[in-house]
């Protein structure tokens, strides 16, 4: 009887919907009157939709009597039409930009579409991706959609367990610039120190922005420092926030891993729950809006310590961290009149995480048996606050589009350690510590002006602008018990206990610092259509940093339409990346005692007494030269192909060096004189060359009353360490300064190739997605100096979706359907203490998920 009531209500609602429904037919064409194959036609405020066939035609049973249809297709501007009597004819314009739109990344032209950009740009429709895949956060969504993008979930990597490093084209996380609505997003305050990804790098935390707040993501796969400034050596990721109105979207998602390797009998672990809501309201009659998103995500630990490794057990607890994440984001525009508007966007993200540190077994001299008779597994906790706010105004005046904005962002990372102790305090030790942390803040004031001259040849676009950026970095100490050794003075070394909180010793007062710098940049960016077939473009940018000086960079680009179906394009650019304030100022100290005297083990900041004594120069900017040559081919709207080969040469890369000890034959006396037992530091120590190819083949087919989208996308790349630069007292010691092990971490930022084959089928209310991703082998070097080869793997994802009603859609499926794991190794010698290091495919096995989405 209890089940009869909801079934009856559902049937009545469905019957009412059918009674009111009507069948609409129509055709979708491009600006030249050609059919657009595979365009999406959705009844607004519902999940009721369809796609166009090989002739651009569609049939849709609409619920409302006069429904509003939203028609969209990649490369075209979305259009809303009202259905009525008779066939509907929709003519889509190419996706260009204007006062009311966010520009396509890679071009400042008001008339440039993604399809005719001289640089390769991927446009990812997040609504389509999130509805049919098991990944919930932005990093993992892009990891399995964009072949040139790589991100890894770290384990056993301290702070990096809580902030996933991400990169483009196999370069470092800090060599990709991230924009939100075209404005520079601030970086994370974290420096990645351990693990195999992003070692020594800072990067931008993409996961602070909930996927539910995003309309699309544009990935510019080309050097763009001359256009956008520091960090854009590998490319640019532009996140475009939603601006929909009068539509409420609510989603709940849950998934869990097949717990194959556990000590207990638990069948599933790593449960991941996500709930989000997005809604927008109109403001005025000139296209104004306020769009808001709330998002909550909770991810549980996985346990992967019990694996068939070669031999040895290094840890009892090993797996993904537990994370709780809440976010609120807003995107708004307020028109003043038809020539002026004010805009604002930004959000706040709060993350709480805890990850496993290395096990201290019962007989470990770092254990106190009276507290932990069976030993203990320290937990490293994080409290991360991330916020951003952008306000600005746009104005059309004298043919110029003017944009004045202020952009503030902040990231604060606080460490804690739980289930641990300070062994030097014995049985009196607390088991929870505040270990300190760091914060990075950024404020950018920008002014830009863009104008299009339609009468100069076939069109000339000119953009000029200037930015003033201030950055602040602070590192603050933890509580005294998190770093101090409390053994009495004169205690023999053999009797001294380990200092500080086990698992993660706190930052000391000597580590603490407050630093700041300013930067001024100015640019000019021009694009000229010499003819309808031939485009040439150039950009020039000057930057001046208060801490290391000036740099001037340029970019040249061209695109030529050989035929209606074939286009050639190419770019050449110089670029730079300023060392982050965190890399310049980070300092970490751990105290050991030798012969009763305290000796420091430290990662020394760049201007410290240690680096100055050893002759390590101040950090300077990385510089790059990039070239890209490619072709695009589009036969109608059903088949498209892009091929882009690239070359990236980077000099003076900032890396984290090897460790040097006080018994070193050359610099040992210097370290001893400074009372330092072991030291490492950041230096402009490496130059690299990358050669690669991006390929994307897309096809749309009308099949059995439905639509099949097929995509084959691949990235092939080879990164080579061209040379290692040493300096000061370490001149000539390249293999020890930045040796093979550290070089392997840099090369492993991406596999040599990643190939993605996706089939996406939609027929009426039913949808299916099948995806294969091949990750090539990855090579690392373990603690014993032996090469570890993580063999290539193919993962398979399958998702099925069904619209239960016009407003409610259910999706179920599995990621890594066949439960593939990386190659196993001895956990005693891996970087993380588990049977593998973090590699591109992930290390948790099969993931099952279900999603329920309501749209009104």
From TrEMBL:
Q: Name one Pfam family in it.
A: CarbopepD_reg_2
Domain TonB-dependent receptor plug spans what residues?
114-236
Can you tell me where the transmembrane regions are? none
| TonB-dependent receptor-like beta-barrel domain residues | 347-817
Give a yes or no for keyword Secreted in this entry.
no
| PANTHER family according to UniProt | PTHR47234, SECRETIN_TONB SHORT N-TERMINAL DOMAIN-CONTAINING PROTEIN
Full protein name: TonB-dependent receptor
Q: Where in the cell is it found?
A: Cell outer membrane
- Read off the Gene3D superfamilies from this record: Carboxypeptidase-like, regulatory domain, TonB-dependent receptor, beta-barrel domain, TonB-dependent receptor, plug domain
Q: Which protein family is it in?
A: Belongs to the TonB-dependent receptor family.
One GO cellular component, as annotated: cell outer membrane
Name the major location.
membrane
The topology of this chain with respect to the membrane is:
Multi-pass membrane protein
Signal peptide location: 1-19
- Keywords, alphabetical: Cell outer membrane, Membrane, Receptor, Signal, TonB box, Transmembrane, Transmembrane beta strand, Transport
| Keyword Membrane listed | yes
